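Usage example:
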Amino acid sequence: MESLNFTLLLDPLGLFFISVILLISLPSAVYSLGYLKGEYSSAKKALGWFLLVLFIASMTLVVSVSNALVFLIAWELMSLVSYFLVVFDTEHEKSIQAGTIYIVMTHLGSAFLMAALMIMYKYAHTFDFFAIKNACLLMPAQVKNIVFLLFLIGFGTKAGIVPLHVWLPYAHPQAPSHISSIMSGVMIKTAIYGLIRFVIFLLGVNSWWWGGLILVLALITCLVGVIYALMDRDLKRLLAYSSVENIGIILLGVGLSMLFIAKDMPYLAIFSLIAGLYHLVNHAIFKGLLFLCAGSVYKACGTRDIEKLGGLIKKMPQTAVYFLLGAMAISALPPLNGFVSEWLTLQAFFLGAFKLTGGLKLFLGICASLLALTGGLAAACFVKAFGIVFLALPRSNYASQAKEVSLSMRVGMFFLASLTVVFGLAATFIVGWLAKVAAAATGIDISRMSFALNNLTLSLKSVKNVYLSSPLLALILAGLGFTVFIVYRLLSKEKTLVDNTWDCGYYKIGPRNEYTSTAFSKPFRIAFSFFLLPYRKTQKIRESFYHVKSFAYETYTTPVFKKYIYKPLLTWVLGSARLMRRLQPGSIHLYLTYIFLALLLLIIFMPKF
Amino acid sequence: MIKISLIILQLLFFIGVAPLLSGLITKLKNNLRMRRGMSILQPYYNLIKLFAKGQVVSGTTSWIFKITPVVVISSALAAALLVPVFIFSTPLHFTGDFLALIFIFSLGRFFLALAALDTGSAFGGMGSSREMFISSLVEPALCLTVFSIFLQFGSTDISVFKSSTPISVSSIIGAIALFLVAIAETSRIPVDNQETHLELTMIHEAMVLEYSGGALALIELAAHIKQMIWFLLIAQIIFPVQAVDLSSPGGLFFWTGWQIARVLLIAGAVSLVEVSVAKMRLFRAIDFLGFVFVLGIIASICAILRV
Amino acid sequence: MQFTILFAVLISTYLMVIAKRMPALIRAFRYQSFCLFLATFLMAIKQSEPDLYAVAALLFILKVIFIPQLLYRTVKKIKAKEDLGLFINPQLSLLWALGFTYLSWEFSTNFISQGNEVKAVMLTIAFFVVLAGIFLMVSRMTALAQIIGLLAMENGIFLLAAAVTGGMPFFVEIAIFFDVLVSVLIMGFFVYRINKFFTHIDVNKLSRLRG
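Running the assembly step on the lines above writes:
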């Protein structure tokens, strides 16, 4: 056995991921100062801090080691520490359940990773990255395909690719909010790092269907994630599902890049990887921010159920602003950061389709349009999340007694909220940096490519002029807004009256009249009923035949993946386990007999071996 | 300096002319229904009347409700700056392309939907939910249409949408798809109905139900501008013009005439559709937009085959 | 001489297999250990190595005197029935044992080239003792029988080492002795505890503990 090699690999790719990790972890840590106050005993708080530091350290290790075995150890460490963080609220039954699902799924993924690394080891005879990289050149294509699929499943479990995403909506909401923020913002991105590092950097893409497969999976992930997010009424679970969606968008960039590498189109490969990485850091920022805001709402109100909230914009004005910025960014509204990366991803699809030939053109076009659908649904989802939680009147006592959260929490949120603006406006610089990262990951020489930086405008030199200038756009929007506001103020001299909302003649309009989250998502539930399989339960309580005293109405959606994939799988596993249990009756003699029989068989068949 | 004056000119053009287009369509519709109808200038009277009036704001609302009209109108105007009107290139064409335009529209819509929820009435929620529903289904169809156009011109920059080649099949199909998208986006029959205030059917109107006075005027103006932008875009795609010499008065005159004529043609088509079709129920919109999506696919295939 | 001792080991192992009662089993184990001691002692004289003397002495003290004595005491102390609780009766056990002997012979002739009969027989018997040890563990109910089975296996492995390499290194030998001693002590203690809790030492009934 070779000795473990602890040298670090700090190439631009690793450094990029380290900076993403720190960028999200530090504000979350600051936030946790206020968040943990009054929730836990001091010993538990100390434990929380210890786990947090260990978690950040293990993630940093994952993205910076240069040895596959050390990578695996760091990966496992990260998974285990995050498991303990998921079950941090041990008094909740749900946390334990979420933790169990998480640990099972994550180890399933690790098993695939191990298998892939073993195959790599077989060819390289060492775990060192560069030796593996060289050895992979000699690997037969068939083996490469298998290794790729193993990596895809292994990292896909961590990233939450549908249908391996089941753990995500359980685990992320159950962790304390600053941890959810780090898990959703950063931890699932380490899987993207793994895909880039192991598949693009080490293994080398050799057939275009790899990228195609990732594209298809990523699209399914996007749509499933966002549709479930739209349906959900638990604020943090909604965000978790939205993470599934965004991982899909990131993977679209990565998969597209792999497609172009295989098709030998270096410029587009770099460009799509830039788009993917840009969305990665953007998602880290706004999802981190949104989870922190959701944590503030939870801390202030004591519930995560959207239907019980409302009107928080008046009670928690600052949190509301931060959440609004996060929601705008994730809905890709200009000039915030999500807009830039989604624009880049769409452009990558378009440009790719322009350069490719035949059916792939149409394929990329349809991919782009489904990405647009995802964007539209995400906007609807966050209109719902912000509108129901923060606007109108409080729907319950939880919300009406809320107070703005403490300073350290606001500082954490403020930092990330300002980053959504900064990363939107500084697009050209960031694209320049990401180009270096993408070059390091793909090994493509970018010195002769141009991702132009003139006048803060992104212009793509590979085709006819396509431009985007987010700062200019922001300037125009702000200037127009300001002018309109001034002109409007000058023109309208009449007084503004404050009155009630129009109530159609109903005598008392209150929170009960407001639209609910379930009602908001109803059209979507009907439009996607082929997938969501909604059903309802109604119950009438009558005093007499003519008078219905109360009417209960509940609506549900069928958890398709749980019901049709995981349930049967689990039943099958348990069934076979029950069969296996007959081998294990508890009799020591029988166990000894097994050993004995094995020994006898070995002796008898020894000459055959 | 010329650029800045061009920008201002373009903004004033949109603010000044966009309501006229709405008035024209209403007039045309009424005439088609054998009615006299109101004056073409009626939208201007409405706007002036609204500006002169005071506002009534619900006590339930927050600052979101107050800033929304400003956001909506400035996003509409920002989008207007990306569309070529006077010359082939827009003054700010390097700010963004067709895709950016779509995103800018969604900014205004996002705030309008939030403001509707802010009022706390069921109407607002209903409108906001439906609007987001329709718009999210519009997105893929729109994106595919843009894609088919992109394949022809090799760029999503709107000022590039002019070809020296004769008009292609994919342009026509793409423009039809875009026309249907525009119908959905400008809340016209058969997807929505601007003229009704019946709570069961209204979408856009339900969102702005709580607005009054100047705020409502801004939102209506934004709607007019948005409609104008859509028409100009469709015109740009379906009737691409060969480069004309703009320095000569003749060329300029031809260009202006052509620009007006093609927008009028589209306005005519819209009013014809509005008169001849009944409004669909909400969930039929899925089929409608699915049809647009298929049109987009056909347009893309045509573009791939270069016909 | 060597052959005689080896056959004595074989016979004593047969005795263990057919033993029906605890004292008989312990006695047979004592005979087996004594034979091993003799073999080691003879080898020590022949090679005049101090290490081997020490090993022989340890073998004698531990396996011939101390451990059997300990087992006797445990049997007395827990006042359990002296029956071993046979799954397979003595006659059938003997038949099995004969079968094992043949199997071991077949097995060892795979390794040892022809003409080296002493080594072949030694390997056969060593294997057989290991097999018989496991067989005892499998086919006898009481926990004490399992301990003795384990000890018999250990004897077999000792023989095996002697047959294959001419004895293990001294320190390994010593270590194994202490291992065995400690395990016997611990298991004896456990047997005592099991008896105290369940009022019997029938391992078969432990299956009730299964979840």
